[in-house]
Design goal:
alpha+beta, 2 domains, globular
């Protein structure tokens, strides 16, 4: 019967269907991810996810004490692939990893007027794939981002403050901005 009315009024989707789709997308990919996590990117190489997991857990306990919460296995983004944008200081285009690209015009970014102590401030987009092929756990996305920034300078913005989902973005992948503060 629903199909009959849909065809009768020649609509592709109803308002209810649109609202349900929007609600599912919001649940699957929340606007804010890991905003309560405390972490400082320190350019330390981690040999394994297990080592990194232990380090984040310890850091939570050291900083938050009784309010510490870290469940690395908890699913935080329900997508097999995401795009994460972040700001960093790099010396050259060679500092980008194979899954990264500049969001700014390369010629403009590396203009000598924008150089500060041999570094250039840039906005970078990194495409990440979930380790399990379907969704990102807290540990998975944090471990990948730790590796993304490990060869870059973050200035005094080393303190992770969460991921913010881009609103009104129609790209193929969910887009998040990694927020870091000082």
């Amino acid at each position: 019967m629903f199909r009959f009315f849909k065809e009768l009024f020649n609509t592709t989707t109803t308002k209810v269907e649109q609202e349900l789709t929007t609600a599912k997308a919001t649940v699957a990919n929340p606007d804010t991810v890991l905003a309560n996590l405390v972490w400082a990117f320190n350019r330390k190489p981690y040999d394994s996810q297990t080592e990194f997991d232990e380090e984040i857990s310890r850091y939570q306990k050291d900083i938050l004490r009784a309010q510490a919460y870290w469940k690395g296995e908890e699913t935080v983004i329900h997508a097999p692939e995401v795009e994460v944008c972040y700001e960093a200081w790099i010396r050259s285009i060679d500092d980008l990893k194979s899954n990264e690209e500049l969001l700014d015009d390369q010629e403009e970014v590396f203009d000598e007027d924008n150089e500060e102590d041999g570094f250039f401030q840039v906005e970078i987009s990194a495409k990440l794939q979930a380790a399990n092929g379907s969704s990102f756990s807290a540990l998975d996305i944090m471990y990948q981002m730790e590796h993304q920034v490990s060869n870059k300078e973050l200035g005094d913005h080393i303190f992770f403050e969460g991921f913010q989902r881009a609103q009104d973005y129609n790209g193929a992948l969910p887009l998040y901005h990694m927020v870091c503060g000082s």
